[in-house]
Design goal:
The protein has nine helices and twelve strands. By secondary structure, the chain is α/β, with parallel strands linked by helices. The chain has two domains: about 120 residues, Response regulator (Rossmann fold, 3-Layer(aba) Sandwich); about 100 residues, Winged helix-like DNA-binding domain superfamily/Winged helix DNA-binding domain (Arc Repressor Mutant, subunit A). Strand 6 and strand 7 form a beta hairpin. The N terminus is likely disordered.
């Protein structure tokens, strides 16, 4: 498992006491056995799960329950997971974790482009799924508290209070956009973010998105972060999907 930025993501070892609020999940899955076993595991860790077996029934149930997180299988009867994702995203700003049957790039891209916040592939670890559900619930609730002002991720440190960032102890000369981009990436360390997601999270204007693409911003940030930008260790491009920030692996 990839290390994560302190002050942003937590892993599956976070205790139940980290949040007193019950997490509610709508789980859309047509595999009855998988849905039953997964729901039982999540229930045993204090998470309320409402199961839906068909895609065409999912939106109504999500609107009724108003969950903290939606777990959404990609292949569903009645309506595909991608269609459900788009329909939910038009109505609610709820974290969506897409579940794909195959570890194929096309499936991951399809989920992210459809508006999903995260994805996990079958067969998945129940503990990993639990960690992702908790992380998305915290994010949907605004990190269950104020945003951390200081983030640390391997060689990188960022302080929102002073609007400064450093790598290997050297202060970086960042534009406002680059600083916000770095903060967004650090808050979601180890997670692949599409170009569209990055622009939305950084709140780039449509003019800026057109004239100076996110690829240009990432390239400039990479020049400042990496010892050798041609062989990036920290800010990586995931072909066909987007970008991911990760600490340098030993």
């Amino acid at each position: 498992m990839l290390p994560i930025a302190r002050g942003a993501w937590q892993d599956e070892n976070v205790s139940e006491e980290a949040s007193n609020a019950v997490i509610r999940v709508v789980y859309v899955e047509d595999d009855e056995r998988l849905a039953r076993l997964t729901s039982h595991y999540l229930n045993s860790h204090g998470i309320e799960v409402v199961r839906v077996a068909r895609g065409d029934l999912a939106l109504a149930e999500v609107l009724r329950v108003r969950p903290d997180v939606v777990l959404l299988d990609l292949m569903l009867p009645g309506m595909s997971g991608q269609e459900v994702c788009r329909a939910v995203r038009q109505r609610l700003d709820v974290p969506i974790v897409m579940i794909t049957a195959l570890n194929e790039e096309a499936d991951r891209v399809m989920g992210l482009e459809g508006g999903a916040d995260d994805y996990i592939t079958k067969p998945f670890s129940s503990r990993e799924l639990l960690a992702r559900v908790r992380a998305q619930a915290r994010r949907g609730r605004g990190e269950a508290g104020p945003r951390a002002t200081r983030l640390e991720l391997g060689e990188i440190a960022l302080d929102s209070a002073t609007v400064t960032a450093s790598v290997r102890g050297v202060v970086l000369a960042l534009t406002t956009f680059e600083f916000t981009l770095l903060r967004v990436l650090m808050e979601r360390a180890g997670r692949v973010l599409s170009r569209e997601q990055l622009l939305e999270l950084v709140h780039g204007s449509s003019d800026e998105a057109f004239d100076r693409s996110i690829d240009v911003h990432v390239s400039r940030l990479r020049q400042k972060l990496e010892l050798d930008p041609r062989k990036p260790r920290l800010l990586k491009t995931i072909r066909g999907i987007g970008y991911m920030l990760t600490p340098d692996a030993p």
